[in-house]
Each structure stands twice: as C-alpha cells, then as structure tokens.
Amino acid sequence: MTAVRVTEDALQEEGVRLGRTLPRGSVVWLVGPLGAGKTTLVRAIARGRGVIGKATSPTYALVHHYEAPTGAVYHVDCYRLHRPEEAVALDWATLVTADVLLIEWPERAGAWAPAATHTITLAYADTDQRLLEVR
Ligand SMILES: Nc1ncnc2c1ncn2[C@@H]1O[C@H](COP(=O)(O)OP(=O)(O)OP(=O)(O)O)[C@@H](O)[C@H]1O
Ligand SMILES: [Mg+2]
To answer: What is the value of pTM for the model shown?
Structure first.
C-alpha cells in the first residue's frame, strides 16, 4: 500500500478495519514522530478487535493490556525507554502470546522488539492530516 492522506476520522476508520482483519498473532510496529497519531490508531485497532473497556489503565505504564473477544491486545509504548537495554524489564515472553501486539516507538527497544508482521508509518501531511502507510 502506498501512503494515503487521512484525517483523524479516516485514520480511526482504517484502525477499526485493521482491528477486524489482522490475523491472530500479528505484531504491529507503529512508527512516526511525536503526535503523528500512533496511539490514536492503536485505540482504533483495539476497538475494531472488539475491545470494550481497558484491562489496565495507568497512563505511565509502558504496557497497556486490552482484552478482546479473540484474546489479549497488548500495546507497548517504548517511548520512555532511554536505552534499548531497559526493554529487558518487559515480559516479552507473555507479550508475544498476544492476539495482537502493537508496539509504539519500537526502534527504542532495539533488538528486544519482536519482528513485525505489519509496519505502520505515520507522517505529518498537514495540521489535521497525516500520511498513513501500512505494509
Ligand atoms: N489526521 C490525524 N490523524 C491522527 N491524529 C491527528 C490527525 N489530525 C490531528 N490529530 C491529532 O494529533 C494527535 C495525535 O496524538 P497521538 O497521541 O495519537 O500521537 P502519537 O503518535 O501516539 O504521539 P506520541 O509519539 O507522542 O505518543 C491527537 O491530538 C489528534 O487529535
Ligand atoms: Mg503515543
């Protein structure tokens, strides 16, 4: 897929669609600068997966756990890792058992980040538009 220009609504629609269609065991990397829409997309993917509430909610947590009818959806936000070595503290053995594993700022986890089955790139196109690429 080539990059498409999306409003926030269109990005969320795409996220919901992805949530419905991603195969079990998908590992999704979300790449893009601060405020590009990675977390917005993660939440839409979770909704598309059928997630209603949130299993854990601390905003400071690196790992957010959602429970979908199809299993666990984990969102790992590696932004606060200062060095890839700090990723050793995360329970990757459990994270890789997810129905869908979503990794934001995967580059900050270095070699700890499990290989992606899908890579989503978001870039700024305009104040209210982004360029979305899914591969
Ligand atoms: N087309 C768009 N797609 C996504 N977000 C948009 C769009 N236009 C404006 N926004 C705004 O940009 C912000 C995106 O925030 P979000 O937390 O999803 O980014 P992020 O990539 O997770 O950033 P960070 O790296 O800081 O975690 C939101 O405030 C959202 O309302
Ligand atoms: Mg974010």
So the answer is: 0.96
- Contact status, residue 42 vs residue 122, Cβ threshold 8 Å: no
CB 38 near ligand 1, within 6 Å: yes
The pLDDT tens digits for 1-27 are 689 999 999 999 999 999 999 999 999
Structure tokens at 13: 């629609």
Residue-range domain boundaries for the chain: 4-134
Distance (Å, whole) CA 101 – CA 105: 13
| Secondary-structure class of domain 4-134 per CATH | alpha beta
- The pocket of ion ligand 2, defined by CB under 5 A, consists of 38-39
Angle at 13 between CA 131 and CA 40, to 5 degrees: 65
